[in-house]
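Render this sequence as a predicted structure.
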Amino acid sequence: MKRLLFLISLVLLPAVCCVGQNRADKLTPRWMRSTVSSRYSGIRYVSVTVPNPSSRNVSAEALDQLSRNIQKDWTISQSVRSNQTDMIQRENGQLSGSERIQISTVEIIADGEPVTVNCMLADEWWGQKSGIRTYCALYQVAESSLAIFDKVYPTNDYGFSPMIMSIIPGMGQFYKGDPLKGSLILGGCAVTGVGAVFLESQRKACKDQMSQTHDINLIKKYSADERNYGIARNVTIGAFAALYVYNLVDAVIAPGARKVKVTPGGVSINF
């Protein structure tokens, strides 16, 4: 059995790697379903969705949607007036030319007055929602002109945590943002597990019936049934084992839905 499971894992590894990335690219980013927390006060993460965007003006359309979201949902306690700038520095030291980050600005109306708010793109995603081509973007938005932006990068890597969670089949896939795959794995393991138990109970019943009769014809029938139930049980156990191994392997190496990782250090505007 150990050799069989090892061979199964060798077959599954390349298959999971090849199919996993294509599927991950189609998954809705995790930041669209949950809140991203900033390491700094004065920074909020805001996601926007632009249906049927124009390829040429998608950035402008996203920023326009962002300004409407901010104006609708935020309470601006003080006017944030600033000019767009490319001059940025780390908390400690200057950024090199290759590290320069573009800060955008959006105009909103707060207390009847125009206010300019700084924002920085954290991640973007093209996908389909309800059959409609959609552009989604996640922005860091500064509540103050002195706010420090997070250093972020998008990733599909979730480490080994999903494997630990996949001790319960499918939980790692749910955690990585793929509920369909998680449901199929959980359901498959449940069906094969229950099936193996049922087939074993039927095999034992045939064995008991065989021991309680002296009719040679019935003995032959019960013996054949016991053997068939035993074979079916073994096949079902093998299917359960293969699916469970796939569940663990997939939880580790298959990329999950995109998420934004906030790293130590930050960047701030230098006026």
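Summary. The beta strands are 43-51, 88-90, 104-110, 113-129, 132-142, 148-155, 259-269. Helices lie at 2-26, 58-73, 161-165, 171-175, 179-211, 216-253.
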